[in-house]
């Protein structure tokens, strides 16, 4: 698994060099494992595509999971900032296994039809209020883990998405205060079984969206102060090296602040909660003829400044 993960990563990084993206050198929080370590650890990715600094080695009192890390707020973030400033040893990327930045959130909130160009692709009006659904947390896998095709579906599709990670608890949050509740951003793949999303289960989207492995995340939680503008980032998906989605987060109908304000009317947000903010055009279901993922495919989801996730379909 580790060897194949390294190979996929190398392929992805070579592909990524074709993009004129400037790699971020800022706060990139990760959850990772290594053969010499017991259980998951918190770390810092040393730049987009770089090695990992072990935060728990720097300060053994730090939590070892992202959710607990975020729950402690500024106290843990300040330790991470000190670690970033210190010239600490970096574990080579080939020696670690990246986990999803958040593995067991209280909730995964998803937003449908949230890109203007994706609405045009379907010839449907732009929504007047956010369309909200969800995935179960059990769908989450790491940035280089495999996507497992379920035998129940013949129409598994791709969707690259910007994911927001909540850092502070809140209910009925004003849009003007919303960014104070955001820890940062990461890359998500909202894998979708279209047959179950649009025809089965009474046309409720949940089951089609939440098969195991249907939510790859990563590679890092890039803190909000390290992202130039989350609503002006290039966003891209490739299947077997071919670009299938290419847009910009400036096409989002409802921005992060509006989504947090809207959803928090109904539910309380907790540290570690994830919001998948919608996908741009280019999904397989709307191609003529439709194209769906098959065994052996490799999907790369990339967002400017945040990084790239690479998932083999099995």
UniProtKB/TrEMBL annotation:
<dbReference type="GO" id="GO:0016787">
    <property type="term" value="F:hydrolase activity"/>
</dbReference>
<keyword id="KW-0378">Hydrolase</keyword>
<comment type="similarity">
    <text>Belongs to the FAH family.</text>
</comment>
<protein>
    <submittedName>
        <fullName>Fumarylacetoacetate hydrolase domain-containing protein 2B isoform a</fullName>
    </submittedName>
</protein>
<dbReference type="Pfam" id="PF01557">
    <property type="entry name" value="FAA_hydrolase"/>
</dbReference>
<feature type="domain" description="Fumarylacetoacetase-like C-terminal">
    <location>
        <begin position="107"/>
        <end position="314"/>
    </location>
</feature>
<dbReference type="GO" id="GO:0006107">
    <property type="term" value="P:oxaloacetate metabolic process"/>
</dbReference>
<dbReference type="InterPro" id="IPR051121">
    <property type="entry name" value="FAH"/>
</dbReference>
<dbReference type="GO" id="GO:0046872">
    <property type="term" value="F:metal ion binding"/>
</dbReference>
<dbReference type="InterPro" id="IPR036663">
    <property type="entry name" value="Fumarylacetoacetase_C_sf"/>
</dbReference>
<dbReference type="GO" id="GO:0050163">
    <property type="term" value="F:oxaloacetate tautomerase activity"/>
</dbReference>
<keyword id="KW-0479">Metal-binding</keyword>
<dbReference type="InterPro" id="IPR011234">
    <property type="entry name" value="Fumarylacetoacetase-like_C"/>
</dbReference>
């Amino acid at each position: 698994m580790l060897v194949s993960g390294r190979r996929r990563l190398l392929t992805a990084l070579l592909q990524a060099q074709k993009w004129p993206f400037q790699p971020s050198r800022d706060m990139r929080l990760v959850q990772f494992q290594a053969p010499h370590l017991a259980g998951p650890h918190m770390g810092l990715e040393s730049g987009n595509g770089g090695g990992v600094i072990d935060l728990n080695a720097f300060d053994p009192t730090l939590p070892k999971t992202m959710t607990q890390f975020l729950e402690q707020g500024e106290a843990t973030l300040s330790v991470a900032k000190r670690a970033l400033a210190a010239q600490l040893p970096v574990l080579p990327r080939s020696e670690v296994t990246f986990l999803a930045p958040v593995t067991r959130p209280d909730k995964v909130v998803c937003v449908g039809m949230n890109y203007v160009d994706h609405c045009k692709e379907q010839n449907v009006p732009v929504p007047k209020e956010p369309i909200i659904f969800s995935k179960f947390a059990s769908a989450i896998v790491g940035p280089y883990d495999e996507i497992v095709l379920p035998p129940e579906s013949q129409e598994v599709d791709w969707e690259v998405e910007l994911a927001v990670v909540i850092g502070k608890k809140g209910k009925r949050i004003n849009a003007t205060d919303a960014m104070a509740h955001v820890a940062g951003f990461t890359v998500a793949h909202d894998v979708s079984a279209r047959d179950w999303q649009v025809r089965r289960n009474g046309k409720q989207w949940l089951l089609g969206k939440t098969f195991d492995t249907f939510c790859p995340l990563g590679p890092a939680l890039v803190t909000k102060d390290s992202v130039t503008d989350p609503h002006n980032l290039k966003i891209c998906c490739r299947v077997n090296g071919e670009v299938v989605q290419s847009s910009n987060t400036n096409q989002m109908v409802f921005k992060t602040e509006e989504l947090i304000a809207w959803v928090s009317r109904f539910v309380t947000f907790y540290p570690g909660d994830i919001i998948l903010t919608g996908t741009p055009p280019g999904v397989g279901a709307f191609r003529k003829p439709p194209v769906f993922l098959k065994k052996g495919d490799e999907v790369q989801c990339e967002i400017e400044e945040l990084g790239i996730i690479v998932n083999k379909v099995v």
